[in-house]
Amino acid sequence: MEPWLQIAIQLGAPIxxxxxxxxxxxxxxxxxxxxxxxxxxxSRSMPVATIRNVPPGWEVTGSAMVTGSCVISLDYFKRFVxxxxxxxxxxxxxxxxxxxxxxxxxxxxxKERAHEAGYRAIIGVxxxxxxxxPNGRQGKGTAGVEVLASGTALRLAP
Amino acid sequence: xxxxxxxxxxxxxxxEFFGVxxxxxxxxxxxxxxxxAGLKNIVGGELKGYxxxxxxxxxxxxxxxxxxxxxxxxxxxxxxxxxxSNITQGAAELFAYGTAVRVD
Lengths: 158, 104
Known about the structure:
- The complex is a heterodimer.
- A 3-stranded antiparallel β-sheet of chain A has the order 1-3-2.
- Chain A has helices spanning 3-42, 76-88, 93-116, and strands spanning 60-73, 121-131, 145-156.
- The N and C termini of chain A lie far apart (78 Å).
- Chain A is an alpha+beta fold.
- Chain A has one domain (3-156): Translation Initiation Factor IF3, CATH 3.30.110.70.
- By secondary structure, chain B is an alpha+beta fold.
- Chain B has a single domain (2-28, 57-103), classed as 2-Layer Sandwich (Translation Initiation Factor IF3), CATH 3.30.110.
- Chain B has 2 helices and 5 strands; from the N terminus they run ββαβαββ.
- Chains A and B meet through helix 1, strand 1, strand 2 and strand 3 of A and strand 1, helix 1, strand 3, helix 2 and strand 4 of B.
């Protein structure tokens, strides 16, 4: 085989993968953001707070711990871009949006679960982020971040 | 068993403290789920297999904590916290802890 052809194939495969994952990855992300916005509007009626005490005047008739979590990962293209960023420093926007998505998703799941069980508000909310699978073998391992939202859901007297 | 992430169980009074109770579990990832997650990792997005796996594991850690609280005679656990740590590639420890109390 001609040497230039070999080089073209060796370079071409990753570039094709980058282009394809760029397309799919951004479509997945856009869709997720759209869904998040919709669900956030729908669940707006439930107050969520990080305060640890019940606000004065609220008559609590029951409570329970609620959680919501989400494991999410970057696409191949964004991981590549983030890798370049690590060389030059600066903001890594792709990780910022990833964490934003994960946090909002975890929070929404917690709210939706509380809502389904008939609770009306959530206090003492905490968000925790953990990297569940650190990149092994030069970034080839499945990397993902998990965000866990937990809080105390309150049942209020009508 | 009442669980709460705040210092008290809202609407109840704490009568007695029993100290810290905790529960943990160490889980390795499932090979099948890992292959799926590996594929999903290329296009990005939620890794549902992992979300479920961790949820299930965390539930188990919570149950162990609750059992410990029951064994000391508590009827609630307040200030429940979670923590996750990677102990080795492909395995994680899910840990839940809180303060066991008796409320009424």
